[in-house]
UniProtKB/TrEMBL annotation:
InterPro entries: MOase_MmoB_DmpM (IPR003454), mOase_MmoB_DmpM_sf (IPR036889). Transmembrane segments: none annotated. GO terms for molecular function: phenol 2-monooxygenase activity. It comes from Marinobacter litoralis. This is Phenol hydroxylase P2 protein. Its EC number is 1.14.13.7. Keywords: Oxidoreductase. Belongs to the TmoD/XamoD family. The gene is dmpM. Pfam families: MmoB_DmpM (PF02406).
C-alpha cells in the first residue's frame, strides 16, 4: 500500500519558489502542476528546509509564511523554526 505524503500550494510567485526549494530538498518527490495549484508528493516523507527557501528568495524566511499558500496537506506534520516535515510514521 502506498503511503504518499503531499502538499498542495496555490500557484503564485511565492509558491513557485517554494516548490523549487522543496524539489531541491526532496529529489525523490513528484511535482504536478494543475490549474491554479502545485501538488508535490512523495513516498512517506517530504522535508521543507528554511535554509533552502532563503537561498531561493535571497532573504530571511519564516517557515510559517508557507501556510498562507497551502491549500491541502496529507501526512503527519512535524514543524520547527528550520523545517516543515510531512511524513507517515
Amino acid at each position: 500500500m502506498s503511503q504518499l505524503v503531499f502538499i498542495v500550494f496555490q500557484d503564485n510567485d511565492d509558491s513557485r519558489y517554494l516548490a523549487e526549494a522543496v524539489m531541491d530538498d526532496n529529489p525523490h518527490a513528484e511535482i504536478q502542476h494543475h490549474p491554479a495549484m502545485i501538488r508535490i508528493q512523495a513516498e512517506k516523507r517530504l522535508v521543507m528546509n528554511r535554509e533552502t527557501m532563503e537561498e531561493k528568495l535571497g532573504r530571511d524566511w519564516d517557515v510559517q509564511e508557507m501556510l498562507v499558500n497551502v491549500i491541502s496537506i496529507g501526512g503527519n506534520v512535524d514543524e520547527d523554526d528550520d523545517h516543515f516535515i510531512l511524513e507517515w510514521k
